[in-house]
Design a protein that fits this description.
The complex is a heterodimer. By secondary structure, chain A is of the alpha/beta class. Helices cover 40% and strands 27% of the residues of chain A. Chain A folds into two domains: 2-226, P-loop containing nucleotide triphosphate hydrolases (Rossmann fold); 231-300, YebC, transcriptional regulation domain (Alpha-Beta Plaits), CATH 3.30.70. In chain A, β7 (159-163), α7 and β8 (190-195) form a beta-alpha-beta unit. By secondary structure, chain B is an all-alpha fold. Classes of the chains: A alpha/beta, B mainly alpha.
């Protein structure tokens, strides 16, 4: 049996405009020692899953087990083996980094001496020395995130939950946090993480579940998902929009599937399986036809591409945003 | 119980250790004490580092005592007592009642900041956060009371009863504020933002403390307001404290039952608040989460 096992999870909030289904029959299974990413846009239900598995909220229906413990019936037993870092760093601004971590140790009942020792160890491991003896207030978002993450690791938890660990961070802090997370899971910690970025899921996880409308709509490794949506994309930007039709024809010749023309009528992209070579052919054919380009290149598929392929609509569609605001209003 | 600790290792990892090991949980009672203390300590540290809160707790009581006794003191006549003597119990009561609202706004703030989510995913006692909250706010209120009494003594206020009676008066004030903290904590967990608590307490508690015998004789109020003042729990608290400090002078006590039996009324009120709101708070806490 997998270490995280959830079946038929439903969570319904009531709101003024009728019930909102934050989760609608979510199934989840994570084998021990692996990393699973829940990938989806805002309001897809990722945070709700994490909140149920970490004993914060009760589902309307369904079952959830971690390490054989029924999370819904024995929340206290579940809390002894998990570490959680939420979407918004839950560090105490007026306490120092050390005090924050020591307090968490005390509340895991490690005892006074062990709590202090562990807090100091984490401060060094996470390079938090600067924030160790000063109140967290005034430190950067990246620093707070690291303290929050350290808080989730005070007991070396059997299962770690990270809810959008890098949302709102600058690229440098994101890279540094990815490094830390990679080191952690190398030691065999089971990790469930949520993210809005395909690249993050790709970098950190063994297995990805794409979440939409409160359930998993696709599952597999990053490679499997990418194969499904056509790997890299070749993108060209035209000088004259009048060339769009012929350029589209050329991209279609060398790509997989239908090329897409952007709203501006000048940028065209297509999924390609043999990457750079397809781009070379496209560029040489465009050159022969005398089509002038502003720009050309390759890009990795984004969450948006995954969504467009799997659901036929964009990830930032207004209806998903509405669902999340309604949920906020109801919660 | 199990094996002996190997040499050189701290005994904390032994399961028999009362401090627990993170694997085997300590007993419920030990956990309740230690977790409650951990959270109290956290709140007090926060308090120590937020100068605005300390100013609120220290300067506001001094200001109130001075403003009322020195400015209104000359104009407000209370037949049967010197105004400063009469006034102090009213200021004590008003200050601790407003002090308790901090329990509400602080709970709301912790909820908003996600700190409550962090606490709720830890294997700690389910009432520890609430215990820690109300404990530390009791400390804050005790500090306010001490400062007010000192300021009061400076402007001529005196305790005219015994030491034990005065201590009973202080005890009653603090117990009332402690019980009221639980009421505010429940509100704090039920609102969407900390500001709501501040606004609501202003809208509700100001009239409640002013339409009472705190600053004037209830008999000077117009008919319906006089009846309200005589049955207002704040009046009962003020009357009880006034009696215990011996500041009633020869002011006649209104006929209403709570005024005639003020100490008993306040004690019943304290017990009722605790019996009703402690379980409600604990139940509410088990289901709250940010956003």
């Amino acid at each position: 049996m997998a270490i995280i096992e959830a079946e038929g999870l439903k969570k319904t909030y009531s709101s003024k405009s009728g019930p909102v289904h934050a989760l609608d029959g979510m199934n989840l299974s994570v084998p021990q020692g692996t990393v699973k990413a829940l990938l989806g846009p805002n309001g897809a239900g990722k945070t709700t899953v994490v909140k149920i598995l970490t004993t914060l909220i009760q589902p309307t229906a369904g079952t959830a087990h971690i390490d054989g413990i029924d999370v819904l019936r024995e929340p206290k037993a579940a809390r002894r083996i998990i570490g959680v870092s939420g979407q918004y760093s839950a560090v105490d601004e007026n306490l120092t980094g050390f005090e924050n971590l020591e307090m968490v140790g005390r509340l895991y009942h490690l005892g006074a001496r062990e709590s202090k020792r562990r807090a100091q160890e984490l401060i060094e491991q996470f390079e938090l020395t600067e924030a160790g003896n000063r109140p967290v207030k005034g430190f950067s978002g990246g620093m707070r995130r690291r303290i929050d993450l350290a808080g989730a690791l005070v007991i070396n938890p059997k299962i770690l939950f990270l809810d959008e660990p890098t949302t709102g961070l600058d690229p440098r802090s994101r890279l540094s946090l990815w490094g830390i997370i990679k080191d952690l899971v190398r030691d065999g910690t089971t990790l469930l993480l949520t993210t809005q970025y395909l690249e993050e899921a790709d970098q950190l996880s063994d297995d990805i579940a794409v979440i939409d409308g409160g359930k998993a709509i696709a599952e597999g490794t990053a490679d499997q998902l990418k194969a499904q949506i056509g790997g890299h994309r070749a993108v060209v930007s035209l000088v004259h929009s009048s060339d769009a039709a012929s350029a589209r024809e050329i991209l279609g010749r060398h790509g997989d599937g239908e090329p897409l023309v952007g709203d501006d009528g000048r940028s065209i992209e297509v999924a390609v399986s043999d990457g750079p070579r397809a781009l070379q052919y496209i560029l040489s054919d465009l050159g022969e036809s005398g089509i002038e380009l502003h720009d050309a290149g390759m890009r990795r598929p984004s969450l948006d591409d995954v969504f467009l392929t799997l659901t036929g609509r964009r990830a930032e569609a207004s209806d998903t945003k509405d669902a999340s605001t309604q949920k906020e209003a109801a919660a | 119980m199990s094996v002996l600790a190997p040499e050189g290792r701290q005994p904390e990892h032994q399961q028999a250790s009362p401090s627990g090991s993170g694997v085997e949980p300590p007993s419920e009672l030990a956990m309740w004490f230690s977790d409650g203390w951990t959270v109290t300590k956290r709140n007090l540290t926060k308090l120590k580092r937020s100068p605005d809160m300390l100013v609120f707790a220290i300067l506001q009581p001094i200001m109130f005592v001075l403003l009322f006794s020195q400015i209104y003191g000359g104009s407000i006549e209370v037949e049967g007592s010197d105004y400063t003597q009469y006034l102090m119990a009213g200021i004590f009561a008003q200050t601790v009642i407003f002090g308790s609202t901090f329990s509400g706004s602080a709970m709301a703030q912790d909820l908003k900041d996600g700190i409550i989510d962090r606490f709720r995913t830890l294997p700690m006692s389910s009432s520890a956060v609430l215990i820690g909250r109300t404990n530390s706010d009791l400390v804050l209120n005790a500090l306010s009371v001490i400062i007010m009494m000192g300021t009061g003594l400076l402007v001529g206020w005196r305790v005219n009863t015994s030491l034990s009676s005065a201590l009973a008066g202080i005890g009653l004030l603090l117990l009332f504020s402690y019980a009221f903290s639980w009421v505010m904590a429940l509100l704090g967990m039920s609102v969407k933002s900390p500001e709501v608590i501040n606004n609501a307490s202003f809208m509700i508690l100001f009239p409640l403390t002013f339409i009472s015998n705190a600053f004037v004789l209830s008999s000077t109020l117009p008919g319906p307001l006089e009846a309200f003042a005589n049955w207002n729990p704040v009046s009962a608290l003020v009357q009880a404290v006034r009696e215990l400090f011996g500041n009633t002078g020869t002011v006649p006590v209104p006929d209403a039952w709570p005024m005639q039996n003020a100490v008993v009324t306040v004690m019943v009120g304290i017990v009722l608040m605790l019996v009703i709101f402690v379980p409600l708070c604990i139940r509410k806490f088990a289901s709250i989460s940010s956003r």
